[in-house]
# Entry
Amino acid sequence: LSTSTGGRGVRVGLVGVGNNASALVQGVFHYRTAAGAAAVASGRHGLRFPVLCGYAVGEVEFSCAFDVDERKIDLDLGEAIFSEPNRYPVVTGPMETGVVVSRAPVLDGVPAFLDDLVLVAAGHRGRDRNGDDFDRCIEVVASTETEVLVNFLPSGSNDATDFFARVAAAAGAAYVNCTPTPAVHSDPVADLFLDAGVPLLGDDLESHFGSSLVHRTLLEALEQRGLEITHSYQVNLGGNTDFKNLFHRPGAKRASKRSALSTVSSADAVEVIPSAGYLSGLGDNKVGYISVEGVGWLGMPVSIDVKLKVQDSSNAAGVVIDLVRLAGAARERGLAGCVPLSYYFKNPAGEKLSTADALAQIERFDRGDES
Amino acid sequence: LSTSTGGRGVRVGLVGVGNNASALVQGVFHYRTAAGAAAVASGRHGLRFPVLCGYAVGEVEFSCAFDVDERKIDLDLGEAIFSEPNRYPVVTGPMETGVVVSRAPVLDGVPAFLDDLVLVAAGHRGRDRNGDDFDRCIEVVASTETEVLVNFLPSGSNDATDFFARVAAAAGAAYVNCTPTPAVHSDPVADLFLDAGVPLLGDDLESHFGSSLVHRTLLEALEQRGLEITHSYQVNLGGNTDFKNLFHRPGAKRASKRSALSTVSSADAVEVIPSAGYLSGLGDNKVGYISVEGVGWLGMPVSIDVKLKVQDSSNAAGVVIDLVRLAGAARERGLAGCVPLSYYFKNPAGEKLSTADALAQIERFDRGDES
Amino acid sequence: LSTSTGGRGVRVGLVGVGNNASALVQGVFHYRTAAGAAAVASGRHGLRFPVLCGYAVGEVEFSCAFDVDERKIDLDLGEAIFSEPNRYPVVTGPMETGVVVSRAPVLDGVPAFLDDLVLVAAGHRGRDRNGDDFDRCIEVVASTETEVLVNFLPSGSNDATDFFARVAAAAGAAYVNCTPTPAVHSDPVADLFLDAGVPLLGDDLESHFGSSLVHRTLLEALEQRGLEITHSYQVNLGGNTDFKNLFHRPGAKRASKRSALSTVSSADAVEVIPSAGYLSGLGDNKVGYISVEGVGWLGMPVSIDVKLKVQDSSNAAGVVIDLVRLAGAARERGLAGCVPLSYYFKNPAGEKLSTADALAQIERFDRGDES
Amino acid sequence: LSTSTGGRGVRVGLVGVGNNASALVQGVFHYRTAAGAAAVASGRHGLRFPVLCGYAVGEVEFSCAFDVDERKIDLDLGEAIFSEPNRYPVVTGPMETGVVVSRAPVLDGVPAFLDDLVLVAAGHRGRDRNGDDFDRCIEVVASTETEVLVNFLPSGSNDATDFFARVAAAAGAAYVNCTPTPAVHSDPVADLFLDAGVPLLGDDLESHFGSSLVHRTLLEALEQRGLEITHSYQVNLGGNTDFKNLFHRPGAKRASKRSALSTVSSADAVEVIPSAGYLSGLGDNKVGYISVEGVGWLGMPVSIDVKLKVQDSSNAAGVVIDLVRLAGAARERGLAGCVPLSYYFKNPAGEKLSTADALAQIERFDRGDES
# Structure
């Protein structure tokens, strides 16, 4: 297997070499194998679009990567994704990608509750936006001909999200903001990409298949039938670093989660706990408990109890694989500034569309019609 | 409270005075009270359409009723609905409706497993289609000016379903077939209504909110995201007479249940048990267990476990309240023969439409456009 | 109904007039009614011991009560239990008990997160142990001939737990400490009761029927069969004041919860979240999700998923009804200092006994043999 | 790995080479490996007794085997266990055991619902107890020096259960009856073993860890606390041959299942469906849904919902591994006729003891004290 696709692929840089990166990198390599190609051909295995904007799943190349953790810096990306504290399963085994992980500056600090999970060398714990770091990072992105830079940082990394947006714009790369920190919703950031003539996508990835989707789907089904929702809740548990982080920095996430249920009219009766607890034994899995209580004809009760279990990082990779192809195509087509892609984000640029309209938007974009 | 709506309402006859009849009759009376009207005004409480074809929920009058059970025959309908072996909760208490339950002939026999539940006098256990019965029943329907006759018989009552279809056609009443026995799908029956110039609706009620709906909704959500469904099952348990009957006569129901999931492409991986067991302690409640296992990005597992609990008969009444109003309007408009209303039936006349298209069909009909 | 039992009953004072008090007071009055007596006679309805140490359930009288909330102070106890923010269901309706709720000093402050739930007058928010308060409280307990003072304060009320221990000892009343704050495990407090010649019971009530019990029961069942527990967790959710308090002050509770599972040998694989989130819509109900994963013969997997739903305060009252009778008897028998009653406490005086041994201890005490 | 334990082991013959045989044979071989021995040493992995009556788990040898299926007859046992329609997972891979599967006579017929699962040659479908078969089978058991013959036949195989009992007695082997067909509870069969001077164990294996155990454990926990059980049910689903068989021949099993809950006093409120449905996709897994509803203090509700998933055949093997060692020791000690071992059977010889007493009985037997 080669890390190159012979020049046809989208060149992707990764900010944050955690579980999401592991899922994405292993997946792309897997889907290039014969077994993976067969899965792709079957139209399943978590792929919405086997081919999107002319790119097959395997036609994604990794060009650069950044992290703050000493155990990942200077390793090959194909090795770094298996370093501590990553917990995504080892599917393909270590690979040589030719991409060496670069040091990222620690801009938001490392909170105490992550101290046992993240290893940062003493000299690099400061929070200042070092001018040398900025130029160095631009140089890495530009020299590797990176076309799309993906922000995989943990929730709450506000300064770093902004820093790498400026790096991308300066280096002429598209930027995909997977975090809840505002980027398409920050005017200065959006203007930066407009001026640089490259596309900006965000904010906050909607999971490929997660508890927000299942919860909203069930609530909508009740409402469509005229049933009253008397009480409903959604409680999420996980065991990876991101989850521990979320538990301590729930702010932006709680808002995003609620906005993901905003299409439901009885939102008042609905309570959501994005991160109810860190359960180390769950590893990279996420468990969601959903309860819905309602009344129907003649006030008779209806109750639904759900347990949902998913692999957290596969849920991100299954969405990002589409986004890097869309962003690559957008850049190629010369689109500048925010690109409205409602389907993949909890808080998208432009209007939040209904599921059907959002999907139609993607299909139009796929055909080359970005109106 | 009056049983009459002052002449504006649809006059409805009921074949089978079981739990479904109890839910329907109590509900109509409840929604005529101040508390009920307030619930209707709120747009919830299990009502899809507070007003449909110009009829409010309370604008439904009961005109006649038939049953085989000695404990119901000759009682007022408002009392008979609380007789043994009915198990629907008592919400409104006994009422005087002015409708006396007529004796229905026992056409399909009473199976041994229902012997302890149904009380039929010795002289009436025969299966022959007595000519006297036929004329007598027509006379009841006609003389009460019944506009819509609703078939609430248990699954597998093939002869009786046919018998009352012929009664309705002869008496000039529309017929709503809630059972899986073919009526709109039986050419002779359909022709009868075409010739009589009255409408026929069927076959097999789709529950207002039940396990088929929840199961299909979840499977579709996975498929829309490109996840593979590796195994899924749905198992239903209940405690009313209908459920005991189903357990012993699963044939037509199993086929209907599967057709209700027919829009899902991976139907091969899906197993459905419509009636896994009769649990007396559940009463008129129904419990459905649904399990969905799939794989997403990079073959990572997704699992969903659901427990759904609903009041079985409210689930029927919430649908029939719409059907009697649609059938009343269809008859008034002079429609003859099968009326295609995909939304409310598992096995409708005409094509089985997608949920969105089926809903649009109802809304067109509501506006008076039955194209 | 009379609030008095004619002098035969145990005279009980309550510190904290919240949901637990509501459950206890309503329950005692209910079990004195004919319907309640019938339930008692059936040996069920949550009563371990219809008669204990010679006292029937109804032979408990309320003599005094203390709270910090303006909406309860100076009300009759039978009215105060229905004041905001209490959420326990109204079963018996308001009663006249003759007991007026006295003001308790605010010793531990009112944390910000409870500000919208607890109403304390401006002049009473200080934290000092006012000498006048102390004398006044002793006077209330002594003058009402209170025999047993029950500490129903929220977790983390360390100063108040200590304050009322000293009040009880000074007034010659037994003290039942339902909170995790050390009392029997505090030498100064224990000595106080030894010197005063009255009994002290604690610490931290074990719920009558809760997730700790169910979880421990399942884990023990696996271990008894030689199965390996690979991962297990327990997550609790609730909607009352105590739960909100717990979420913010989890410290002592988390330790207690773990100690309640201490009899299980594979405790390393077990994770417990005592308060995963405050879900207002649950009211006084508590929901526990328990997951157990293990391996059996030839490494084959076993999995158990549990959802448990209970009324939180009934769970306390069902235990306290026994404790006040035991404490009353202990005082009557002249026992001084810590009384070891392992069965009812998470962290009891003396050794934590196995369930069987702990039960035997109670039965011996009931017979008058407190060895 | 050797199939022999150098003469120290118990020599075991198997009647029925289905999933249970596969679990037992693979398990014994696995626990002889280094990895298996380590698991044994850990005291876990589904082993109640690493050593019992002086025999380690690996000190069990297979000496003979019988089946009716053409696809298994004449194969080595280590290969036959992987033949269709067996569905137990392949853990150790095919082995050479030196034991060739002998043809068993078809005595109870092959019911229509198993026709697609069991392959019997046309000439062998008769039901007569052929004299030649009898002598041939005795010869197989005797010549292989089989010490213990285990009856793994499906529920309802009444004639075959009796046939192999007579074979065992005639050949001087102990007999372990895992089925609900009466053997220790049949006087003629019991007398046979008394006369032959060899031990007889049965009837009907209690699963190592299954829904009966979990259900009884939860019900007992409620009752011990004085809670009233208002309604409870247990529903079981599976996907192997035995389960399909059970669904059609529920008789004896339903009785056994109920007797397994007989220690619970509120058995009236409890409903059990041993085989609610055959779900092919579950394979050799079994799913049990348990619901418990009760009321506690002041009539407040308690509800417990459980989903239990286990490997069906491992559940049998984990018990049989103890029984063959006990039976081997009993034979060695010269015990004749029924041996009362309440712990392992739903319907044991002698009295059904409480769990604690039953366990004590095994421990006494282990020490050589079979009083």
Summary: Chain D has a mean pLDDT of 88.
